[in-house]
Amino acid sequence: MKVISLNESLKKKFYTFGAIILALLVVLVSRLIYLQLIKGDYYREISMRQAIRLIPIDAPRGEIVDRYGVKLATNRPSFSVDIIKGEVVDSHLNETILKLMDILTKNNVKYKDDLPIYLDENGNPYFNFKNSDEVSVKEETLKTREKAWKKANNINENATAKEAWDILIKKFKIPKDMDPIEARKIMVVRQLMEEQGYNQYQPVEIAVDVDQKTVAEIEEKHLELPGIMINVKPVRYYPYETLLSQTLGYIGRITQEDLKNLDMSKYKLTDLVGHSGLEALYEKYLRGKDGGQQVVVDNYGRLIKNLGTEPPVPGDTIFLTIDKNIQEAAEQSLITTMQNIREGKYGESFPANIGAAVVVDVNTGKVLALASIPGYDPNIFATGNPPKDVVNELFKSRDATADPSPIFNYATQGAVPPGSTFKMAVAFAALDTGVTTVDEKYLDPGIYPYTGQRNWLWPRTQGWVNVSDAIKYSTDTYFYEMGRRMGIDKIVEYAKKFGLDQKTGIELYEAKGVIASPQYKREYYLGLIKSMVKTDTNPDGVITEEQYQKIVEIIDKGNLSDYNTFLQLEKMGIKDTKLQRKLWEMMYYAKHWSLTDTCSAAIGQGDNQFTPLEIASYVSTLINGGIRYKLHLVDKIVSPDGKIVEETKPEVLDRIHIPKKYLDAIKLGMKGVTERGGTASGAFRNLPIPVGGKTGTAEVVGRANYAWFVGFAPYDDPQIVVVAVIYQGGHGSYAGYVARDIFDAYFGLSKNNTGETFNVINLPIR
């Protein structure tokens, strides 16, 4: 046997070990050469891409300010919580999301939630494709959204909510046995990330307007939350909350409908845009240009170096014609006055639950105040995540004329009977057509002999009255007589001259009023009959389209004796006697216009319906001597560098020749309304500035009377017109207290509407 010495054995082991080391070095060097030389550019790019981050800087939305620069809609800094997918290892992504969502949930932080799959009380999934700020949406719109969402997520368009849920569970690698509530939190964030697209280093906003306590907790746990970052961004802010709310409007998340109208090259899907009011109408001006910051970060997303910044460009500033102080006075007075009416502090009590007021510069058409009560606080929409219970209440389906709607602008959209505020238009028409003179006196009979209609003061009468007296005392019978002398066509003609039943031109959406006329009456009742036609969209209809056309022919022929009409209805297949009578009544009203209709129209009743804005335009046109200006809210638009982008100049829509003696007679009557013995004397007691006005008490079926007041000041050189209306306010004189407070604010006088009980026993309360 050959014996190997110990030294030789050690040498052999040494050479073997050395060979292994050498081989490892060769492999290592080869790998380094491969990485450095062959794949060096590739991995250098990957390294740089992970180390350099582009942080978007949201542009502040343009401000909306009053005529003096007082900020009505501005921005405030806030913290947002974002996630960057590229900085989170896929295997830890869901874990990171859950840790973050637990912090947000624990601290009651509202996060973005666009996932259309919700869980019922038993944890079962169901679909809901309404946005957070929507209540009523067309079924067709919801189906379109559902189809688009399923397509984007590769889900069969016929899949149920449970099937879609299971697909997302698998897609996002969520454990099947995870609590559904926790699983949904992951889905919510993962969907937000999916919507971001393929740029995995673009921050995805999860929550905005996060409180400092939550921010501090997230910062403390940053090692456990890779890819989570805190940003500072501007949030819309309305410092006066409900003030001018319907006019300013609100902002919200971009919807499918918005995608059709916006230039999306200027927006991110997570941006907020105007959804109503000026915020929506002036979106293109208010929208700024986003900036960005390029930075180097470490593995935990912490800033190492700033490589450069492109500052954002704010949106334009919109200067309104609104005077914030007058607006405040108008809104507060409506609230106080309605409360006083409900409590009976002016005499009788009435429900008084809706009010509106308009203040207009008579010489330019500038709107100084546009109040609608109740209002809402648009701050609840500022983050894009309004509370659903609040949204449901704000947007619930209702009859806005009976059930107060905070989002409905009663100043621009609330068309209601104007009552006696219409009488000045009729007075001028009577004077201008020559059916009366400024000196002619008419004896109030109490009951108008031609129609049996009563003066409001009946059983007392107002004696001999001329046009000025008739306005001061609101003598109904005088205007019945003027209406009879002129006829309805002249009333309509002159109402149109004052712009009634026409839009005022204001920048907001506005309703167009209605002038009572035979044409409108016919259209109204034909519309009621048309609504009874059975169609695919109206399966409950009781007549056919052919029957409707025959009914129109019968009306046009004019033979509407009840017996003959019933026979014709039966011949065309309408056998039900109750339906026959209902149709005959509507056919009769569609055809017949009576003197009673004309007289009702002459005192602002009947089918007359106008918005406070229309009434303000009409009274301004009258008081300034016949110039009808286009009403406007926006004075100018100014860019961030101070340049005027747009400026609104007074625009004349029409002119009416109003002889001075006619205007003087009408103004004299309006002055008397606010003086001792006038229908609004109580509200204007001790006012040091002479004013003119007119009360209106409009009758509405099934409700307490609507209270109107229109006024102007100063009397000798009018500057402003004020219009106030209170739904179910009872008496027009009560609305005068709102106008008084507005005059006080405009002229810098002390407050009058203190809520004290006024002695109105011996005063007219028309």
UniProtKB/TrEMBL annotation:
CC per GO annotation: plasma membrane
Main subcellular localisation: membrane
GO biological process, one term: peptidoglycan biosynthetic process
Membrane-protein topology: Single-pass membrane protein
Alphabetical keyword list: Cell cycle, Cell division, Cell membrane, Cell shape, Cell wall biogenesis/degradation, Membrane, Peptidoglycan synthesis, Transmembrane, Transmembrane helix
Domain (Penicillin-binding protein transpeptidase): residue spans on this chain: 355-744
Name of one Pfam family that matches: Transpeptidase
InterPro entries: Beta-lactam/transpept, Beta-lactam/transpept-like, PBP_dimer, PBP_dimer_sf, PCN-bd_Tpept
Transmembrane segment boundaries: 14-34
Similarity section: Belongs to the transpeptidase family.
Protein name: Cell division protein FtsI/penicillin-binding protein 2
Native source species: Thermoanaerobacter siderophilus SR4
